[in-house]
Amino acid sequence: MDAQVAALLLSPPVLALLGLCVGSFLNVVVHRLPLMLERGWKLDSAELLGVKIDEPPAVTLSTPRSRCPSCKHQIAWHENIPVLGYLRLRGRCSACKSRISPRYPFVEILTGVLFAAAAWRFGAQPITLLWCAFFAVLVALAGIDWDTTLLPDNLTLPLLWAGLVAAALGWTIPIASALWGVVAGYLSLWTVYWLFKLVTGKEGMGYGDFKLLAALGAWLGAQMILPIVLAASILGAIVGIAMKISGALREGRYVPFGPFLAGAGIVVTLAGPARVLDWLGWA
Asked: Quick check: pTM over 0.85?
């Protein structure tokens, strides 16, 4: 690729626009992937038990067309333009005037900002697109976990393997660091999980958290596991306390850890390992 063309196509403004479009798709993933998985689980369970059930409606990432959940109005293409469509509709359905969640433009803007940040952090080179994909998967996982307390293997495992392959090809970190990052990421939370369960008799987190941290280790290396866990724990504690005080966190419910792991992974990536270790005084 010509250097000038690469500098243009991989510049922060262009990647920010790409991020807005990808963010619009991520909203679909966050909403529909859990529905797709739930449908598959129901059908598999019915087949295993030998019982007949009413087959749940088929849902994919592309079908059916997006509709208003209140009045079933089919959303037009121009209403789906990232951010601008929401602003043009003033956050309301064009048919029934029901409120549209502000999370839709938030995810679009967040993804656009992250893509632009990737361009700033890694420069005008093809590997930047790989890091953009890394950020996009983390945004999707954070949204799904926040809604459902589920971190699907459909996303965590491909993210893990992509990190290992990228390291093996020499695109990110040394493969040894990536492999040990996977081991350290998984075993660290697995150990905490079992210690907590032995002491309290309760499960403090899910296996999806282990896999997500292992995936982050594949991309960032073993030395970043502890900083990620520390940052995620602090963020989770702050948000959990704030929600408890405001009444948003009901009794018996908990805040999923996945979104904070994803957020901490993004922060560490953009800051860079050397700067993170320097902040902690470990350099």
From this structure: yes
